[in-house]
Amino acid sequence: MKLGRDEVQAWLDEVSPGTGSVRLAAVADLPRLRVKQQLARGNVAPATIAAISRALDLDPLTQLARFEAFSDLVPSSPAVGEMPGFISSPGLFRASAGRLENQPVTETQLGPESYDMAALYWFNLANDGALRARIADELGVNQPTLWKMLRTRLREDVALAVCEHAGWPGVSALVISEVLTGKEAGWVEECRATWANTVPVGQLLSCTEQRLQQVGKQERDRESFDRHLG
């Protein structure tokens, strides 16, 4: 998902007037060629806007919300239904073990909010059987492309469509797409730990069981692939 040249240039003229692409790249710690090409082509990634905002000590979400594509976004913690998607598999397993032993779960025990395969697990929480078809129809994203996105990085417009489909806060799309951190998205402090410590144990175990099945399938597929190569 890219932002157009005119609206990005208007934004830059306001927040950093007269600053060239080389200087912007330097202050944002981004590759110079990437920034130059994005600005020249009018295809600027939201992550670039977020990085420049941070470098200028501006709130990334506030700045992104100035663009039409993200104008409806407001700060929010994840919805209850999507919370497990922001918890790593080991973190989810530790949370279940802790609850069964009547031990409180800490935010640190849940692992990083961004982790390998997070997009896939988050997507699966929203998938009611109609989601893939909706994304294909509305965004023209075919199944092979979506399969790859879910295992690498989910495109922002696809993530926004998932949020709309599931009734989740739109800002979650920018967290799962790795544009914003949870803190930048307005997450309440330790909201994941609060969820893990208060959700009914049976529901937590059900989430953990589903994740375990997914992780198990991935490991079996990997082992089968390794054996085939060997």
Q: Can you tell me about this structure?
A:
It is a single chain. The protein has helices spanning 5-15, 21-28, 32-41, 46-55, 60-64, 89-100, 118-126, 131-139, 143-149, 156-166, 172-176, 191-198, 201-229. It has 230 residues and is an all-alpha fold. The protein folds into two domains: 5-70, 434 Repressor (Amino-terminal Domain) (Orthogonal Bundle), CATH 1.10.260; 80-225, no CATH class. The relative contact order is 0.13.
Briefly say what this structure is.
The chain has 230 residues and is an all-alpha fold.
Mean pLDDT: 94
Count of extended strands: 0
Molecular shape: globular
Helix content: 55-70%
Ranges where pLDDT stays below 50 over 5 or more residues in a row are none
Overall SS class: mainly alpha
What sequence of helices (H) and strands (E) makes up the elements?
A: HHHHHHHHHHHHH
Count structural domains.
2
Count of DSSP H/I helices:
13
Radius of gyration: 19 Å
Characteristic terms for this protein:
mainly alpha, single chain, 58% helix, 230 residues, 434 Repressor (Amino-terminal Domain)
Any chance you could write out the topology, listing elements then pairs?
Elements: H1 5-15, H2 21-28, H3 32-41, H4 46-55, H5 60-64, H6 89-100, H7 118-126, H8 131-139, H9 143-149, H10 156-166, H11 172-176, H12 191-198, H13 201-229
Helix pairs in contact: 2-3, 2-4, 6-13
